[in-house]
Every structure is written in structure tokens, then in C-alpha cells.
Amino acid sequence: MSIRLLIADDHHVVRRGLVFFLKTQKDIEIVGEAKNGQEAVDMVKNLQPDVVLMDLVMPEMDGIQATREIKQCLPKTEIMMLTSFSDQDHVIPAIEAGAAGYQLKDIEPDELVASIRKLMNGENTLHPKATNHLLTRINKSETSPHEVHQLTRREKDVLMELTKGKSNKEIANALYITEKTVKTHISNIFTKLEVSDRTQAALYAVKHGLASS
């Protein structure tokens, strides 16, 4: 089954470059190209792609607002920011808007494809620079004793690895536990923090400092 992908970027050369490479992937189907945020929202509503590669700065509507509108009407469509900005003033709002991925345009083509596939597996995917900003915010956040009490030590370990964008297998290897155990911990984390996916859990950790305690 192919991944239906829409590309949103106001630079024609960037769009062409992405299409040129991604169309060589047998499991990826390019269903549309948008040159601004508003066009991306309209096209997503009509085409309902699985994944959107979203530029951050575009005319008419920026990528963050477009992401917010897309997630409101089509929450199952995954969005990856593909941008030149790696500062936390851009990273955090993008994740808050609903982006499950945040990559920079210097990403290697094969890594981009791997990130797209991760999104389809329900995993968040962040460029190392974006991850560093998230972890910095975590370390500076104030911790709520009540919220920390909700999670076990191992659940907080899993949450820390989750904020780094790791897959279940990578978390299992890092913590020397089974993937089945990781899934159980993640399910418990979702329930206790009242979130519905990995990105929301990571954002909650960023806001409340749960992963740093």
C-alpha cells in the first residue's frame, strides 16, 4: 500500500527537487503540490493525503496555521514540517499545531524517506537540532509533583526516549526491555497524561518537565 503524499512549499525548485526524488520510491505516491498554506489546506481537504510535507514560511498562510487547520478537519493526516528554521520559537508552535515531524531541508534524501515512513507507523520524527531545542525546554521546565507522581520511573524513562523521536524498537534497545513492554508503557503514558498520540505526549513532557525529573 502506497503512502499518499502532498508537498507544500512556495519555492518551485524545492517542490521539483522533492518530486524528482520521492517519485522514485515505490511506496510513495505524490498526489499534489501546493505553493502556499491556503492552497495546501484546500488540496488536503480534496485529496486527503496520508502525509503532508509542509514548508514553514509561505505566503497567504504559513505552515503552522495550515497545519492547525488541516489537523482540525483531517486529524489522521500526518504532517511533517520541512524547513530551514530549527529554533524553538518555530519548533514548539509547529508541534503544538499538530505536526508529528520536524525536519530541516539539509536532511539526506534517504533519511527523509525514512522519516515519512515513520510517520505512517505512528512515530514522531525530529531533526537532531529540533530535538535539542525540545530537550533544552524540558530541562528548563518546572515540574509538577502531582504529575510526576502519576508516572512510574520506567514510564518517565520511556517518555524521555519518546521525546527524542525514537521508535518502539529503539526505545526497547536503549532501555533493555521488550517492544511489547514499551507499547504497554506508552499506552499507560497516554492514559495518565490524557493524550492520544506520541507527539502530544512529547509536547506534554516539554511543557511540564516530566521527562527531566
From TrEMBL:
The lineage of its organism: Bacteria, Bacillati, Bacillota, Bacilli, Bacillales. This is LuxR family transcriptional regulator. Residues 4-120 form the Response regulatory domain. SMART domains: HTH_LUXR, REC. The modification 4-aspartylphosphate is found at residue 55. Gene3D superfamilies: 3.40.50.2300. Residues 144-209 form the HTH luxR-type domain. PROSITE patterns: HTH_LUXR_1 (PS00622), HTH_LUXR_2 (PS50043), RESPONSE_REGULATORY (PS50110). GO terms for biological process: phosphorelay signal transduction system; regulation of DNA-templated transcription. One of its GO terms (molecular function) is DNA binding. InterPro entries: CheY-like_superfamily (IPR011006), NreC/VraR/RcsB-like_REC (IPR058245), Sig_transdc_resp-reg_C-effctor (IPR016032), Sig_transdc_resp-reg_receiver (IPR001789), Tscrpt_reg_LuxR_C (IPR000792), WalR-like (IPR039420). PANTHER family: TWO-COMPONENT RESPONSE REGULATOR. Keywords: DNA-binding, Phosphoprotein, Transcription, Transcription regulation.
